[in-house]
Amino acid sequence: MPKKRKQSIDIMKKTHLYLLLTIFTLSACGGSKKVTRNVDDLAVKTILDSHQAAEPDFKTLAARMYVVYEDEDHSQGITVSMRMENDKAIWLKASVAGLVTVAKVLIEPKRVRFYESINNQYFDGNFALLSDFLGTQIDFEKAQAILLGQSIFELNKSELTVSPLASTLKLQPKIQPQNFIYSILLNASNYKVSSANLSQPKENRLLSLRYGNYEKIGASFYPSTVELNASENNKKTKIEITYRKIELNVPVNFAFDIPEGYEEIELK
Length: 268
Description:
Mean pLDDT: 84
CATH topology of one domain: outer membrane lipoprotein receptor (LolB), chain A
Strand content: 35-45%
Shape: globular
Helix content: 10-25%
Number of strands: 16
Number of helices: 4
CATH class of one domain: Mainly Beta
């Protein structure tokens, strides 16, 4: 995700009509034939600026979520409380019936801490464990982007093509790197991510993200659902997040103390 630039949400409002007209015009060319023409460079810059402007602008966020985790061995759904301080911290607490805490996670730009009470284990280190858990490489910025519906890829207008596709805009590199093949679909109405796909053939790694409808809270749009599918060497992981409540700029704390007697998780 590129470095955050504070831009007014008004960019989206001013460019919305222009981009929809662009999509309609390009889609109409040639009737039912497949559209191969790309949006021009000026429109690409406008689209990327609009996506950047769509990044939620908040100081703190508190949310309730229902998360379903599936891998080849088991499937589990659980209630999760999330707190965020924009660009600084992501705190997660998983609980049964909203009462019994079974796990906590604190993600910061350079550090990940985690403990779970089923096996009395904890982790305090870098992003290696989180990447292994999700089945794909991840860092703080990517984790935050996934949760907020922003691109996990660095988007450079000089390197991208944009093509209208139904009610979305498809972004992909003009030349795909051999081991980092990706594309992203943005909603034409709000410039938030509709879906994203990444393939890294050398590592036999795939990642896909799918977003449901977006809800406008304050001046920004927030996802209602996120589905993440990851695979590496045929090990598959699926995570579905359903947001039940989102509150902005409320008091939050990131209390995190590893209970005594827990065993540290050691990465192999």
